[in-house]
Amino acid sequence: MSQRSTPPLIVGHRGAPRERLENTLPSFERALSAGAEGIELDVQLTRDGQVVVMHDPDLGRVTGGRDRRRLLDLTLAEITALTLQAPAETEAAPLLTGRAPRLAEALDLIASFQARVAVEIKWDTGDPTAIVEAVARELTPTRIARAALISFSRGVVRMVKKRRLIDTFGWIRSRPLEEEHREFLREIDPPMMVLKKTLATPEFLTEVVRPGREIWVYSLNDRADVEQFLPRPVRGYISDDPVELLRLRRSEHAL
Length: 255
Known about the structure:
Layout: E1 9-13, H1 25-34, E2 38-45, E3 51-53, H2 76-80, E4 84-87, E5 95-98, H3 103-112, E6 116-121, H4 129-137, H5 141-144, E7 147-151, H6 154-162, E8 169-173, H7 179-188, E9 192-196, H8 202-208, E10 214-218, H9 223-229, E11 236-239, H10 242-252
Parallel strand pairs: 1-2, 1-11, 2-6, 6-7, 7-8, 8-9, 9-10, 10-11
Antiparallel strand pairs: 2-3, 4-5
C-alpha cells in the first residue's frame, strides 16, 4: 500500500457496529478504545423535544420488528429505557443489545477520548427548527471543541450555518450534484463534506475539494477500500469496522 503525508482519520460509523450495538455508548467506547480518532453518530428528535442518538426514525430495525413506534411519538425517557437489539455480522456475537443514549452522554464520552465527532442531524422534510434548537441546547464548549454538525438536509445545514452554532459543519451527499446542489454548495461553502464511497470518485472530488474543506467518506471497511482511497484527498475514513482498519494500520503501516 502507498503512504500519505497526512494519515487519514479512522472514524467509527455509529461506533463499532460489528461488535457492539450501533449508536450506543459501548459501541463508541469500543471504537475509541481501539484507537479510532473519531465517531460518526446520528440524532433524532423525540416527542418532548429532546435529542436521542439513533439512526432510524422508528424502532422497527432495533427491536426485531416487534415495536415500530416512531421516535417522534415517544419521550426521551421512554426511548432510553428500552433494550434495543440487532443481529451481529459475526457468529461470535449473534445478538447485540444496548440502550440509546442521550446526545449529551455521547458527546461527553467522546470528548473524554479527545476524539473528533460528526453528529448527523436526521431530518427529512419540513421546518428543521425544532431539532436544530434541541441539538444547540446540548452544545457546550467542551462538547463542540472537536465536533461537527452534518446533515443530508439542506435546511438543517443552512440553519446551522446561519445560527453559527459551530465552526465545523458539513453536508452529506450520496448522489451526484445537479445545478441546484452546486448553487447550494457555493452559497453555504461548508467546511466539511461527507460522501458515500461510490460517489467519491476522483472526478467528483475534483469538483468539491477546496482549500480548508475536509472530505470524509463512508463506509470504508477493508483493505480494498483503503487501497482505493489512499491516493485520494480524503481526510476521514468512516468505517463500520474501525477495529479492522486500525489492525491494517498497525500491521501494514498503510494508514
